[in-house]
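Intended use. Records like the one below are meant for learning the mapping from a protein sequence to its folded structure. Do not use them to infer anything beyond what is encoded.
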Amino acid sequence: MLERNFTIVCDRGCDLPPVYLERAQATVLEDVPHDALGHVDEVALTQALVRTYRALAAQGHDKIVSVHSCASFSPVVTCAREAAAACEGVADVRVIDAGSASAATGMVIFRLMCHWADGATLDEAVEQAQRLAGSVRLLVIPTVAARFARRRSRKPRAGLLGRATSSLRIRISGERGLYLVSRGEVTQLARSSELSDLTGRLAHAMSAVAASEGELVYATIETGDARALRALEKPLDTNEFEARRLGSVSASSQVEKVVGQGAVAVAFAPADVYWRAAGTVGEDEATAPDDDPRVGRDS
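Structure written out for the chain above:
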């Protein structure tokens, strides 16, 4: 077995097929502990990560890159940071907040695996992974009843009666939302009772990014609804922007609990950032924009 310069830790929320994780000898946090109310037990999760990092260090893998979805989508990255601090002096643990979720996190991990296979140093690989995390995005259309949509009300200060009325209106009308998950933030871009309207807006949002940042690479995510997947793929197949489809994945149960069964999503990133080799410097390094283009805000 070849000796590599670092080892990778992640969780199932990245939605990467197991075969990719196995090839890169990644350590996967299989089960996220929950309390009696069904919420993530963050104390137990932090302890599980501490045990994972220490076990890897005991095996000689004392350089670790731990990659997880953004804190606004999952608590794992926050727990990973606490666990890394608890392992200081035992292992060099670099925690990367993917800035997004689902297959967008998976894209960051996949490219990190490529850097690992190419023999990149820890610093080189982390630098490129963090750069990609700053560019990767997830556009997701959760189901009407999804926890993801409910906890991100458009009027958080409307009061209990206002929130209840809004929730009831959405459920009766069948309205769904289109959300952008990027750089750790979640932004609602549109609402509609027509899925085809939302998927069209999703493609328009990707087109806006392509116009600004060039050719894209993307992957589609589905949760078992063939009709919804067809509605997602149609506008992408007829898009007028340069993009390469990497493939399609099924959301893990961890992600499906957040977005709902029947949700669809697209993870994407600028092709030049995605394919950049570790240790190289891109032309955009000195002039990278400080904030994320507000894709689709006019919709």
